[in-house]
Amino acid sequence: MTRPSLPVSATDIALAVGLGALAGARAALPNALISHAASARPSRGGLLGSAFLTRALSVAGLLELVGDKLPGVPARVDTSPRLARIGSGGLAAAALGRPHLGPMAVLALVGGVTAALFTTLTYRFRRRATRRWGLSNQGSGLLEDALVLGAAALLLPQLRKHAPIQPLPGLGAIGGR
After folding, report:
1. Is 66 within the bounds of a domain?
2. How many CB atoms lie within 10 A of CB 105?
3. Which residues contact 124 (CB under 8 A, 6 or more apart)?
4. What is the pLDDT of residues 60-108, one digit of tens each?
5. Omega of the bond prior to 4 within 30 degrees of 0, cis?
6. 15, part of any domain
7. Does a structural domain hold residue 18?
């Protein structure tokens, strides 16, 4: 007897692409958004929506916004930052399919691949903005921040409406409200 597979909807894929794209630009942002979305539904958010994790991920996102403009920070296309973005995009997208492992795996793949692509695209955008418009690294970073935060503001309401964000079986009580 085969188990019926759980479908992954077009909305799931679109949200996974959005989270992956954000991860390509700012690694900490997608998981902060997922946590904020889960915290909007305390009965189903579990650990992911806990106040502590939501605050911690938000602080990580803010620190990344500041740190991104500092001299000596490695380029996002270097191996470690690229892997962090791929992992972040995959992890955030996987949360959309919780608690079902099949959809989680598909969405993690979509989020990770999208993060890999957008890591390169956003790097090139920023370099081109610096050259074409004569912006400093900080100026191009602030322009990128505005675009990324605008996209995040559009994505967050959709994530809040998304039903599958719920605790993994057995973990519902941990960190729940």
Report:
1. yes
2. 14
3. none
4. 988 998 888 888 889 999 999 999 999 999 999 998 887 778 889 999 9
5. no
6. yes
7. yes
